[in-house]
Amino acid sequence: LANRMFHPEDSVIDVSGIPVGGKKVVMMAGPCSVEGRKQICRIAKEVKDAGADLLRGGAYKPRTSPYSFQGLGSDGISYLAQARKETGLPVVTELMSAEHLDEFIDQVDLIQIGARNMQNFDLLKAVGRTRKPVLLKRGMSATIKEWIMSAEYIMSEGNPNVIFCERGIRTFETYTRNTLDLSVVPIIKERTHLPIIIDPSHAAGDWKLVESLSLAAIAAGADGLIIEVHDDPENAWSDGQQSLKPERYAQLVNKAKAIAQVV
Ligand code: PEP
Ligand code: MN
After folding, report:
1. Which atom of ligand 1 sits closest to the CA of residue 168?
2. Chunked in runs of 10, what are the mean pLDDT values of the chain (263 residues)?
3. Alpha-carbon torsion 197, 202, 208, 213, what sign?
4. Mutation choice for ligand 1 from 68, 94, 243, CB with most ligand atoms inside 8 A
5. pTM exceeds 0.90
6. What angle do CA 57, 41, 71 make, to 5 degrees?
7. Domain range for 257
8. Number of domains in the chain
């Protein structure tokens, strides 16, 4: 169903009025974690002013350690909904369990399937039974074929609204958190008709690298970027080291849009 052979034109996915795919690049931004109502509403305004089209923020967090902050859960979802009400930005957040699907259907515009759940087939089938747009992150050790098959799991249940997201893969390199694989942009575009966006933040693990990776992604033909932005990265509850401050994010958006004009 994702195959370009049977669907030659690019699919454009409508995320609550924001088209993903097609001509324009879409900018998603926000903190790694929702830390409170005030925090997410404040950052939502900052990223909107900087040029973002969608707000990100994790409420259910897939942390490596069970002793790390696990997210605000259901409260986090309602704070995101509040930020959306105040700014008009649609929201994207990660669904970790089908148990929470009802709450996501009501309050979330784009359901993120995280890298760690890319092959959680029951979860994929559950979101496949809805019509909600799904942001399908690439597993950190998944091949491109496996990733496309995960999209098929969602689509074969009846949901055609899938957006790919490359977020870096595990390699022998340890300098960066993951290795950003930009070759997936032309490959996914050749093999499928679905949009693909890039997450340079989780690939790099370091805010200093985020701008160059972002600009390279747009030059390669990506349909958008999802970037971690925090207004107090030093004190962020998760992923502060890879989060951009709003002012730097605003500069990045301007440069990315300029490059998008010529590709
Ligand atoms: C995230 O977007 O906050 C996240 C946990 O991403 P990933 O699943 O790519 O690690
Ligand atoms: Mn994060």
Report:
1. 9
2. 96 98 96 98 98 98 97 98 98 98 98 98 98 98 98 98 98 98 98 98 98 98 98 98 98 98 94
3. negative
4. 94
5. yes
6. 35
7. 4-262
8. 1
Q: Look up residue 110 and give its two tokens.
A: 């784009």
Q: How many Å apart are CA 139 and CA 153, to the nearest integer?
A: 15
Q: Write out the DSSP string of 1-43.
A: --BGGG--SPP-EEETTEEESSSS-EEEEE-SB---HHHHHHH
CA 6 / ligand 1 centre spacing (Å)? 31
Give the Å distances, CA to CA, from 236 to 109, 176, 196.
24, 20, 28
Chain-centroid distance of CA 68 in Å reads 22
Q: What is the CATH number of the domain that holds 172?
A: 3.20.20.70
Both structure tokens of 143: 């091949």
DSSP annotation of 19: E
**Please, are residues 195 and 20 in contact by the beta-carbon 8 Å criterion?**
yes
Ligand 1 pocket test, pick from 137, 239, 242 with the greatest ligand atom count within 8 Å of Cβ, gives: 137
Decide whether any atom of ligand 1 lies within 6 Å of the 118 Cβ.
no
Which SS3 state, helix, strand or coil, does residue 166 take? strand
Residue 251 · residue 47 · CB < 8 Å:
no
Tokens linked to 3: 């195959």
ipTM over 0.95: yes
